[in-house]
Design goal:
Layout (H helix, E strand, L loop, with lengths): L1 E12 L2 E12 L3 E5 L6 H8 L7 E6 L2 E2 L8 E4 L11 H11 L4 H14 L15 H13 L5 E5 L7 H16 L3 E5 L3 H7 L2 E6 L2 E7 H7 L4 E7 L12 E6 L2 E5 L7 H9 L3 E8 L3 H13 L1
Parallel strand pairs: 3-8, 3-9, 6-7, 7-8
Antiparallel strand pairs: 1-2, 1-4, 4-5, 9-10, 11-13, 11-14, 12-13
Helix pairs in contact: 2-3
Length: about 300
């Protein structure tokens, strides 16, 4: 089942088309990456999904229902630009935001205190928001985003300003929410984070979708048939007659490139027959960052 479905969504500001015929689905209980360079249309799209603005045309479904003004209570949104009121106390601020999402005063305090204990920040309850560090503010914003148990959570650069320990803390909570059936729409410029936590992605540029699908499948589709071989011993003199080009040779490692459809089995067999001791043999898949750059550059041509 899809928790979110976009069908031919269009949004224009005067003569600029910010979102141009965008369609994709976010499956329930998955982490989905919304990617693209600055100006790609990601923020415009998020503003439409959260009903801050409306689409000019197309349809958006949340759990099979056309998006309406009641749906924001089923969505948690953590924007890149944080929106905490600096003069309010942390607890007062969180209760206020939880009440806006429909929680009672009692339920809000109970659930917030549980989250504060989980993040080991109970002592900050009565301190001003303005005294928070960027990382601490990030934790508070995350709690405010998830406190009402939304079905869909939209996180825009959620790890910005966090040290590795606190980044892992937030990451663990994202995984936990996913296991509970929550869907996460994750927007970031950090492709290594996308590779680590996202199952599916959509890549936008200039308002259009230029790539979408499963992360592992996309990486496999863009592979260049490169193999890294670490070895001990002497390579056979005829190794380049096996149909593979040596692109790099450093110390006891070579990187070889084959053609599409080539099988690596005969290469491994030839190395073993030559009494070369293979330490490791790995196919090199492109990173999402490399794919991102290649697709965006080609779509700009």
């Amino acid at each position: 089942m899809n928790v979110l479905s976009l069908q031919h969504v269009v949004k224009a500001y005067h003569s600029h088309i910010a979102v141009n015929d965008v369609s994709f689905d976010v499956k329930a209980g998955t982490i989905f990456g919304l990617l693209g360079p600055n100006g790609a249309g990601k923020t415009s799209l998020i503003r439409i999904i959260t009903t801050i603005t409306g689409a000019d045309s197309g349809q958006i479904l949340l759990n099979g229902e056309a998006l309406n003004n009641m749906h924001p209570n089923e969505i948690g949104y953590m924007p890149e630009e944080r929106g905490l009121y600096k003069k309010m106390k942390v607890g007062e601020q969180l209760v206020y935001l939880a009440r806006l999402k429909g929680l009672s005063q009692h339920d809000a305090k109970t659930k917030l205190m549980a989250w504060m204990k989980k993040f080991d920040i109970v002592s900050w309850w009565d301190k001003p928001v303005g005294d928070l560090s960027k990382g601490m503010s990030q934790k508070i914003q995350f709690i405010a985003t998830v406190i009402h148990d939304p079905k869909l959570i939209i996180l825009d650069e959620p790890f910005s300003g966090l040290d590795p320990i606190n980044a892992n803390l937030i990451k663990d909570e994202i995984y936990h929410l996913k296991q509970q059936g929550t869907s996460i729409l994750f927007s970031t410029h950090r492709m290594e984070q996308v590779e680590e936590i996202c199952e599916d992605i959509v890549l936008m540029n200039k308002g259009k979708v230029i790539l979408s699908g499963n992360v592992n499948q996309i990486k496999n589709d863009f592979k260049e048939h490169l193999f890294s071989i670490k070895y001990q011993g002497k390579l056979p003199d005829n190794i380049e007659t096996l149909g593979y080009e040596i692109t790099t040779h450093t110390n006891n490692e070579i990187i070889m490139k084959g053609s599409q459809g080539d099988k690596s089995n005969h290469l491994i067999k030839a190395l073993i027959d030559s009494n070369v001791s293979i330490v490791s043999f790995n196919e090199i898949l492109p990173t999402l960052n490399e794919i991102f750059i290649k697709k965006v550059e080609s779509s700009n041509e």
